Amino acid sequence: MIRFYFHPTPNPAKIALFLEEAGLPYELIPVDTSKGEQHAPTFRAINPNGKVPAIVDTEGPAGKETRVFDSTAILLYLAEKTGKFLGSPEDRPELLSWLLFLASGLGPFSGQAVHFQFAAPAGLDYAVNRYRREAERHYQVLNDHLEGRTYMVGETYTIADIAAWGWLDRASRVRKNADNPLGPFPNLKRFFETVDVRPAVARARAVGKDHPFKKINDEETQRALFPSNYPPAA
Q1: Residue at 234 is within a domain
Q2: Is residue 102 domain-shared with residue 169, that is, in the same domain?
Q3: SS3 letters across the chain
Q4: What confidence score (pLDDT) does residue 234 get?
């Protein structure tokens, strides 16, 4: 059984999609990051970085409970555990390259673009421009790579496609006020739509819908999400 620590944001969404694609049994454990539940000692024992997603595999190697945190690490772990969505052995270097491109580039720059356009104080025009333009540059890299291709790596659907889908699903926030956020990137738009119509995507989107996650953006939420912006308690 997989215990899946979840909040409805792009990185946990990737894991929800993999679990639904693979048909793995899992127990959903909501972590309301707007309430600061990610900072609780019990969760920090699973992910010392205090971020979702994280999993605990109750049937890990040698039958021991195994924690895994960071969405890319979780995708690799679960793909290797199940033997699913890894592509062919000869595609392994390419798979790892694109997974780490997504983990170190598309994800962080998309996240910062969203932060500076929606959450940061007004007047930080340089940061807004920097992160949005870098996110769009990553879109262009992917768009160029996907010319004449259906999937990110090889000829089959892999965890690289799942990883890309998580943040591309938020393109309307990354490219705030764009009428057609993936429109300038036709290969990327076609790729996203190919993944987005898979039946498991609808199931992944439904994960956690019955949990009352906090939606009010008050001071508690700001302190919970951005604790480094506040001085430590005396």
Answers
A1: no
A2: yes
A3: CEEEEECCCHHHHHHHHHHHHHCCCEEEEECCHHHCHHHCHHHHCCCCCCCCCEEEECCCHHHCCEEEECHHHHHHHHHHHHCCCCCCHHHHHHHHHHHHHHHHHHHHHHHHHHHHHHCCCCCCHHHHHHHHHHHHHHHHHHHHHCCCCCCCCCCCCCHHHHHHHHHHCCHHHHCCCCCCCCCCCHHHHHHHHHHHCCHHHHHHHHCCCCCCCCCCCCHHHHHHHCHHHCCCCC
A4: 52
Candidates 107, 131, 105; CA nearest to 117 is 131
Q: Quick check: 231 pLDDT over 80?
A: no
**In Å, what is the CA distance from 78 to each residue of 26, 95, 104?**
12, 15, 20
The CATH number of whichever domain residue 30 belongs to comes to: 3.40.30.10
Number of compact structural domains in the chain:
2
pTM over 0.85: yes
> Same structural domain for residues 41 and 110?
no
At 176-189, the pLDDT tens digits run 999 999 999 999 99
d(CA 164, CA 188): 10
- pLDDT tens-digit profile of 121-144? 999 999 999 999 999 999 999 999
User: Count of alpha carbons within 13 Å of 191, Cβ hemisphere only?
Assistant: 33
